[in-house]
Amino acid sequence: MAFSPQARVVDETELSLPAGATLADAIRASGVLDRHPDLDLTQAKFGIWGRAQAPDTMLRERDRVEVYRALQVDPKEARRLRYRKVGQRGQAKLRG
After folding, report:
1. d(CA 32, CA 52)
2. Non-local CB neighbours of 48 within 8 Å, separated by 6+ positions
3. Cα separation, 58 vs 54, whole angstroms
4. Are 27 and 1 in contact (CB under 8 A)?
5. Which domains does the chain have, with CATH numbers?
6. Which of 67, 55, 51 is nearest to 5 (CA)?
7. Beta partners for 48?
8. Is the pTM for the entire model greater than 0.90?
9. Do residues 52 and 77 lie in contact, with contact meaning Cβ atoms separated by under 8 Å?
10. Residues 6+ apart with CB under 8 A from 83
11. How would you write the pLDDT of the chain (96 residues) with one tens digit per residue?
């Protein structure tokens, strides 16, 4: 089970669950809600191996359950900001 409460921080928990366990069961069993009380499961998105899934999705052996937080910045805007920060310095390096 993996959750990133903020950039560059990952809370990972390895679990052993019985057959027939769901994504929601894994989240409850992980203790992530105790460690991150500000995590609002009504607003959070869930997934398995990077693909969004419903909380009632049945798990398979070795699945990586993930809880996704809301994006702070649109990815396109983040790329624009990084480009502006590097600016012409990055262009000069590319030219050789």
Report:
1. 18
2. 23, 57, 59, 63, 64, 65, 66
3. 9
4. yes
5. 2-71 (3.10.20.30)
6. 67
7. 51, 65
8. no
9. no
10. 90
11. 999 998 889 999 999 999 999 999 999 999 999 999 999 888 889 999 999 999 999 999 999 999 998 877 888 998 888 888 887 565 555 555
